[in-house]
Write a structure and sequence with these properties.
Length: about 130
Amino acid sequence: MNRKYSFLKSKFNLAMFVCVLIMGVIGSGWVAVRTENEIRADLLKQAHLLSKTINIEDVESLSGTPADLASPQYQQIKQLLISAQGVDTQYRFLYLMGRNIDGSIFIFVDSEPGDSPDYSPPGEIYSEAS
């Protein structure tokens, strides 16, 4: 009888371990998804706030081509992005993007200086977009 009790106890311990392990995996996944959703919501909120500082007429005047480089509206938006990036150092890059008729995403304005290796000129296709 003692041997049977020991066998049942070891099965019970194994079942409890598996249950705890499964609950840990599910709990970790739930926390990861929730955290990602919170980060996305915060990022969207900050992008929305920044968008309120950009004059829509200035954006509408841009062509999304290298010709924009001479535009005062382009320069004004670029300076705004540079300033916003300086206020919050958690952002490495800030872009104002558009979408072509074919669905491809392109850069209107970025926050990088023209001599930076990470600079994206107006009209550059942003192929990393999902």
